[in-house]
Specification:
Layout: E1 5-14, E2 21-28, E3 35-36, H1 41-45, E4 65-68, E5 73-76, H2 79-87, H3 93-104, H4 113-116, H5 126-140, H6 150-175, H7 189-198, H8 202-208
Antiparallel strand pairs: 1-2, 2-3, 4-5
Helix pairs in contact: 3-6, 5-6, 6-7
């Protein structure tokens, strides 16, 4: 639930064993169904709710996320949420732009990391491959291994966020025997993941969210092409 706000609407719950009844307010969010505020249920009716797994319960009031497990929906504020988890507050415009730029221009992985995939079987579980490749990053980036240094922690965090979609897509590509594809700095975070994973044509990317221009080497079955302007 996002940005819950009280309204004048209520729901009446009746205890048929005692005849007691109580009105409970409805809360409205910016998206999703309305929510019955039952925080005073015990005080007014002497009962608790029973909802294993929070299948019909909103556990918190969130202005940055929305989850609907039945529909398979997970919405969040993307880069802003990542920034907040790292820094403890939502970014301003300048902070968001700087953070987004840092992530966008660190999506490339070291060329030798690609050689690690050959050590895994083609039918290895993707999470096992992903864990192995991510763990190897410490062997390639020695300037960000001191967990007691705030700056090094920041650098390591940015690299991990930036490179994870690239590595995850490589795990998929390797499992199906397709060549790896290099990420592109002109694409947004999720767009880059789809591009690197599926090697999309321009019209497919438009359906995925935003149109991008096709370029040599971005078609079906094309070999990866390095971009000298992009750094690891």
């Amino acid at each position: 639930m996002s940005s819950a706000a009280k309204s004048n609407e209520t729901v009446t719950i009746v205890d048929n064993t005692t005849g007691k009844k109580a009105d409970f307010p409805l809360l409205s969010g910016s998206i999703g169904p309305k929510v019955i505020d039952v925080r005073k249920l015990y005080d007014q009716l002497g009962h608790f709710t029973y909802d294993p797994g929070y299948m019909a319960t909103g556990s918190c009031d969130s202005a940055i996320t929305y989850i609907d497990g039945d529909e398979g929906i997970l919405l969040h504020r993307g880069m802003e949420l990542c920034f907040m988890l790292l820094n403890g507050h939502l970014p301003g415009k300048a902070e968001k732009d700087e953070f987004t730029h840092s992530i966008t221009y660190h999506t490339m992985v070291h060329e030798q990391i690609m050689q690690l995939f050959r050590a895994f079987r083609r039918d290895a579980h993707p999470m096992a491959v992903l864990a192995g490749v991510v763990s190897s990053m410490a062997a390639f980036y020695h300037d960000s291994t001191d967990i007691h240094d705030p700056k090094q922690r920041e650098i390591a965090s940015h690299r991990l966020i930036a490179k994870m979609p690239t590595i995850a897509a490589m795990c998929y590509k390797y499992s199906v025997g397709q060549p790896f594809v290099y990420p592109r700095n002109d694409l947004k975070y999720s767009e880059n993941f789809l591009f690197v994973q599926r090697e999309l044509h321009a019209h497919d990317v438009q359906r995925a969210g935003r149109g991008i221009q096709d370029q040599p080497g971005a078609g079906e079955g094309a070999r990866p092409h390095p971009d000298p302007a992009r750094r690891p």
